[in-house]
Amino acid sequence: ILPVEFDRCYAILHDILESTPHRAVVCFGQTTYSEARLEHVARNRDHVRDGEPPRHRERVIRAEAPPELSSTLPLEDIATGLTTAGIPFAHSDDAGGYVCNNLFFHLMAAPRRSSVPCGFIHMPRLGPEGWPEERIAAAGDAVIETVATFLSQDA
């Protein structure tokens, strides 16, 4: 589990990825939506809140990077896997402006990530206003199994 902090979140993930062999990277975050969200696009901007009184402002995540980067996960295959598992989902082209998008954008902008499928999926919150633990686990399993199948076909 990564901290919910702009930039620091990716710094920790980066260290893990540099020290651990991997063939894909799937990041999960929480959403207030009632279905899983397959994130297609990471945007090069954060919505931060600071100052007194607090004000919202936008900031660029990486000045040298393009405005948007696309997921390289097999999202259509993942959609099929979720459908087969009976998990409700939606395609999304907006991962938000908070830490989830920040992590997703850093991940996609990182060198050497172009050769490894990477992306981000939002899951509903755990609990009464979201999903039970079993449903979140089943959705995560369906995503990971689908990516593993995709990788085995590519081998």
Structure description:
- The mean pLDDT is 91.
- This protein is globular.
- The longest helix is centred in the C-terminal third of the chain and has 22 residues.
- The strands form three sheets. It has a four-stranded mixed beta sheet, with helices on both faces.
- A hairpin with a 4-residue loop joins strand 4 and strand 5.
- It contains four helices and eight strands, in the order αββββββαβαβα.
- Helix 2 packs across helix 4.
- By secondary structure, the chain is an alpha/beta fold.
Low confidence ranges:
none
Report the span from N to C terminus.
29 Å
Number of strands: 8
- Main pleated-sheet profile: 4 strands, mixed
Determine Rg (CA atoms, Å): 16 Å
Q: What percentage of amino acids are in beta strands?
A: 15-25%
Mean pLDDT: 91
Strand order of the largest sheet: 1-8-2-7
What is the SS-derived class? alpha/beta
In N-to-C order, the SSE pattern is: HEEEEEEHEHEH
The helix content is 25-40%
Task: Present the secondary structure layout.
Layout: H1 8-19, E1 25-31, E2 36-39, E3 41-43, E4 46-50, E5 55-59, E6 68-70, H2 75-84, E7 89-92, H3 99-109, E8 118-124, H4 133-154
Parallel strand pairs: 1-8, 2-7
Antiparallel strand pairs: 2-8, 3-6, 4-5
